[in-house]
Amino acid sequence: MKLGLLFSGQGSQKPGMGLDFLSDPLFESIISEGSAATGLDLKKIMASENGELNETKNVQPALVAVSYGIYKMLQRDLPNMPIAAMTGLSLGEYAALMASEAINAEEGLKLLADRGQYMQEDADATPSTMAAILDPDIAVVEATCDKYDQVWIANYNSPKQLVIGGVAEDVNQAVADIKEQEAAKRAVLLNVSGAFHTPLFNGARAKMHDRLANQPFFQPVVPVISNTTIDQFKGEEIASIMERQLAVPTHFGEDVEYMVENQGVDATLEIGPGKTLSKFAKQVNSSLSRANIGTMAEYEAYVKENQQWI
Predict the structure, then answer these.
(1) Distances 308 to 4, 77, 294, 295 between C-alpha atoms, Å
(2) Cα 105 vs. chain centroid, distance in angstroms?
(3) 8 A C-beta contact, residue 95 and residue 14
(4) Mean pLDDT across 2-13
(5) For every residue of the chain, which 3-state class applies, written as one string?
(6) In the predicted model, what is the mean pLDDT of the chain?
(7) What is the pLDDT of residue 193?
């Protein structure tokens, strides 16, 4: 088996995520150290009793801390996992870069606290939204977006799902246009705080340029595939790619294809809340064996089933 790790992206968060892992001392220490590094109460954000997870600036460090904490537990309990490659959906790339030792956890979470704040500012500045386009005629959807000044393809998630984003009024019109042309099976508006991965986030991109100027990255110890370039991250290029990533489309589906074709990946493990990335992986390559870990019960079952990797 050659395993590809998939780290959850923004949108997968949910109130209570990760709380059941806090009984594990290693996980708890990662969350506590992340809180100290970012100045945010990550446990409170994870619980989201007062809607803390509704804000991008909170979601980003909290979700990555949860995913990274689960990964470190796996590294401890299944040290011989046959990991051939990693990727994540957008925000999840940071968890992959931390897991692959391209950046240490403290620096990575500090960076995410700033990234989340920059993106929150852009989201607040312009009312924008996104829509999932299911079973699309990709060429027609792309041409439809081109008709509007402020609508773009934001995510190429799989052969069966695109996401478009832009100014809310224009996205609504583009969705109606796509439906009228019967260019997709469904087009569904998403409950998001902004049109991420579009030029509406060029302000955050400029701030990240400055923030990343003196941020060191290292060559990943395991290949990490970029959503932006559909290629392996190289240490000296990571900062420039992660700056661009904010305002250009993601290509998660093609990342999965790359891992299969170039790293020989034949199984995936999604780390973080939900099963969305596992569904995308199936749509890319139905022969992949798939698993996911978002709860302690799922973690314990996975470890029990894979004792050969101890």
Answers:
(1) 17, 11, 22, 22
(2) 16
(3) no
(4) 97
(5) CCEEEEECCCCCCCCCCCHHHCCCHHHHHHHHHHHHHHCCCHHHHHHCCCCHHHCHHHHHHHHHHHHHHHHHHHHHHCCCCCEEEEEECCCHHHHHHHHCCCCCHHHHHHHHHHHHHHHHHHHHHCCEEEEEEECCCHHHHHHHHHCCCCEEEEEEEECCEEEEEEEHHHHHHHHHHHHHCCCCCEEEECCCCCCCCCHHHHHHHHHHHHHHCCCCCCCCCCCEECCCCCCECCHHHHHHHHHHHHHCCECHHHHHHHHHHHHCCCEEEEECCCCHHHHHHHHHCCCCEEEEECCHHHHHHHHHHCHHHC
(6) 97
(7) 87
pLDDT tens digits for 116-154?
Answer: 999 999 999 999 999 999 999 999 999 999 999 999 999
Q: How far is CA 130 from the centre of its chain?
A: 16
Are 301 and 74 spatial neighbours (Cβ–Cβ below 8 Å)? no
| Residues contacting residue 36 through CB under 8 Å, at least 6 positions apart | none
CB atoms within 10 A of CB 297: 10
Mind listing the pLDDT tens digit for each residue in 219-232? Answer: 999 999 999 999 99
pLDDT band at 7 (very low <50, low <70, confident <90, very high): very high
- Rounded to the nearest 5°, which phi and psi values hold at 13? -60, 150
CA distance 30 to 36: 10
Integer Cα distance of 20 and 272 in angstroms: 13
Percent of the chain with pLDDT over 70: 100
Question: Above 90 in pLDDT, residue 90?
Answer: yes
Residues marked as catalytic: 90, 197
Name every residue whose Cβ is closer than 8 Å to that of residue 17 and which is 6 or more positions away in sequence: 46, 53, 62, 63, 66, 273, 294
